[in-house]
Specification:
This protein has 129 residues and is an all-beta fold. The protein is 0% helix and 48% strand. Strands 2, 4, 5, 6, 9, 10 and 11 form a 7-stranded mixed β-sheet that branches. It has a 4-stranded antiparallel β-sheet with strand order 1-3-8-7, with no helix packed on it. The radius of gyration is 14 Å and the shape is globular.
């Protein structure tokens, strides 16, 4: 059974940093992976994604501040979040899609919820002033 295990959320002051980790367990396949977030009263939005070939994509709101990268262990991904501000406060969800996303070649490297089959339970990130 495929499961996504997330860690690394917490509380931080504005300007600080956090690193989220997500691992896909229970499978030998290769996955494209991404992070989404949902703030209270708002729709869930894509934050960043990384495909099996290393192609990355970011939401405009996090470009230059967040970095998505693969871990040394298979199907592990990190989201390094720097220069956090209160608008980044949200529940962050990891997502995975077996055999990749096909990001390369897409207009603006767009990705969305429908690209992912598997989802984690979420980890809370709170940024205070």
């Amino acid at each position: 059974q495929v499961q996504l295990v997330e860690s690394g959320g917490g509380s931080v002051q504005a300007g600080g940093s956090l690193r989220l980790t997500c691992a896909v367990i229970g499978t030998y396949s290769t996955y494209g992976m991404g992070w989404f977030r949902q703030a209270p009263g708002k729709e869930r939005e894509g934050v960043a994604a990384i495909d099996t070939d290393g192609t990355t994509s970011y939401a405009d709101s996090v470009k230059g501040r967040f970095i998505i990268s693969k871990g040394s262990a298979k199907n592990t991904v990190y989201l390094q979040m720097n220069s956090l501000n209160p608008e980044d406060t949200a529940m962050y969800y990891c997502a995975a899609q077996e055999y990749g996303l096909g990001l390369n070649g897409r207009a603006r490297l767009h990705f969305g919820e429908s690209d992912f089959r598997y989802w984690g339970q979420g980890t809370q990130v709170t940024v205070s002033t």
